[in-house]
Write a structure and sequence with these properties.
The chain is an alpha/beta fold. Strands 3-2-1-4-5-6-11 form a seven-stranded parallel beta sheet, with helices on both faces. Strands 7-10 form a two-stranded parallel ribbon. Strands 8-13 form a two-stranded parallel sheet. Helix 1 links the parallel strand 1 and strand 2. It starts with a strand and ends in a 12-residue tail after the last helix. It has two domains: 211 residues, Rossmann fold, CATH 3.40.50.720; 112 residues, Alpha-Beta Complex (UDP-galactose 4-epimerase, domain 1). 41% of the residues lie in helices and 14% in strands. The protein has eleven helices and 13 strands. It binds NADP nicotinamide-adenine-dinucleotide phosphate and ligand G4F. The site of NADP nicotinamide-adenine-dinucleotide phosphate (NAP) has 27 residues, from helix 1 and strand 5. The site of NADP nicotinamide-adenine-dinucleotide phosphate has 27 residues, from helix 1 and strand 5.
């Protein structure tokens, strides 16, 4: 019988790549979808007709218990979150509820449905394996570079704080109840499916608009921030590998190389044959209340224990995104960008 996976955040960037990957591995894939009529879920279903949908919301404990009861998954991937850092200052409480408390609700749903009592032990002798989407944002103001599984956390946003709560809770369920619950501490990963509010996609869309004569400038915030950017398609494979390991452990996933936003802009404009300095305008209002200046992964553990390595380089990723957005805009499609966000 096919193994069954339940993915929260199925309509997001990672949800779509993970669904695609698991379908390719022969899984029966279920996605948790919230809302009465979620257009992002409808779009995703058109793309992947084989993904089955179960209704639920990370804010609603009962709905998660029902979803786990119905799907009877072998593996649960908790990707659902409010994931845009600036939004976490605007709606801190909601971010805490979805990105932080949502992890507790999902773990509780698994614990209850697999019959794990407060004293431990599984009634049906089954274990549902659980993956939590932890984030390099938890390192925040970094205490060392590069960052590994033992680096201390100093989150710099309500989002980072909520992720740290979910991270420690996942460890706690593993230690308290013997559950197979792991966290992937993933560094920034991008793709042509990235939301338009994140800087890489904002840049690739900006370049495509300028190249096609649809815009004449691109406004950005802090050009000096440095990130370890990889390709989302590579990173979902690491999520799956973590749940196939013999022992539940946490892993850092990234490329080990960092670039600044300035270098990102330079590479993206160059990929379209343009000089970035003619078009990029810096805007102080796009800076954050507290910035994460740099993030750089030390993914040695994942390489040694999971055999995982990123395949797509920074330059290949940037070129892939710019080319995809040039095609998209040339076809008359332009993903809506809420310009009230940075
Ligand atoms: P994304 O594109 O922003 O997707 C977020 C998903 O969360 C969407 O499918 C959204 O569904 C869902 N969601 C929001 N509120 C929800 C709720 N109340 N109940 C259930 N689902 C809800 O994020 P992503 O880039 O794919 O990232 C996936 C996960 O990895 C997130 O947890 C993110 O924080 C984490 N992460 C991402 C990165 C990265 O660089 N991409 C790095 C580290 C960690 P709707 O369609 O209903 O809004
Ligand atoms: O693309 P970003 O918005 O991503 P950020 O804040 O690093 O968060 C992403 O990666 C995390 C992993 O570390 C995830 F957990 C999280 O869910 C999300 O996927 O911003 C990257 C950098 C920041 O330093 C920001 O200040 O780019 C800088 N930046 C400069 N100008 C900008 C802009 N960011 C955005 N979104 N828009 C700008 O105009």
């Amino acid at each position: 019988m096919a193994r069954r996976a339940l993915i929260t955040g199925i309509s997001g960037q990672d949800g779509s790549y993970l669904a695609e990957y698991l379908l390719g591995q022969g899984y029966e894939v279920w996605g948790l979808a919230r809302g009465q009529a979620n257009p992002r879920v409808s779009r995703m279903r058109k793309q992947f007709a084989d993904v089955r949908i179960v209704r639920g919301d990370l804010l609603d404990q009962g709905s998660l218990i029902s979803a786990v009861e119905r799907v009877q998954p072998d593996e649960v991937y908790n990707l659902g979150a409010i994931s845009f850092v600036p939004m976490s200052w605007e709606q801190s409480e909601l971010t805490g509820e979805v990105t932080g408390m949502g992890v507790l609700r999902m773990l509780e749903a698994i614990r209850v449905c697999s019959g794990v009592s407060r004293n431990g032990g599984t009634a049906r002798g089954e274990q549902i394996r659980f993956y939590q989407a932890s984030s390099s944002e938890m390192f925040g103001q970094v205490s060392e570079t590069p960052q590994n599984e033992r680096t201390s956390f100093h989150p710099r946003s309500p989002y980072g704080v909520a992720k740290a709560y979910g991270h420690f809770l996942t460890q706690n369920y593993r230690e308290s109840y013997g559950m197979f619950a792991v966290s992937g501490i993933l560094f920034n990963h991008e793709s042509p499916r990235r939301g338009a509010e994140f800087v890489t996609r904002k840049v690739s869309l900006g370049v495509a608009r300028i190249k096609l004569g649809l815009a004449d400038e691109l406004r950005l915030g802090n050009l000096e921030a440095r990130r370890d950017w990889g390709f989302a398609g590579d990173y979902v494979q690491a999520m799956h590998l973590m749940l196939q390991a013999d022992k539940p452990e946490d892993y850092v996933i990234g490329t080990g190389r960092m670039k600044s936003v300035r270098e990102l802009a330079e590479a993206a404009f160059a990929a379209a044959g343009l000089d970035w300095e003619r078009y990029v305008v810096t805007d102080q209002t796009l800076h954050r209340p507290a910035e994460v200046d740099l993030l750089c992964a030390d993914p040695k553990k994942a390489r040694a224990q999971l055999g995982w390595e990123p395949k797509v380089s920074f330059d290949e990723l940037v070129a892939m995104m710019v080319e995809a957005d040039l095609r998209l805009l040339s076809n008359g499609d332009d993903p809506e960008h809420d310009s009230s966000w940075p």
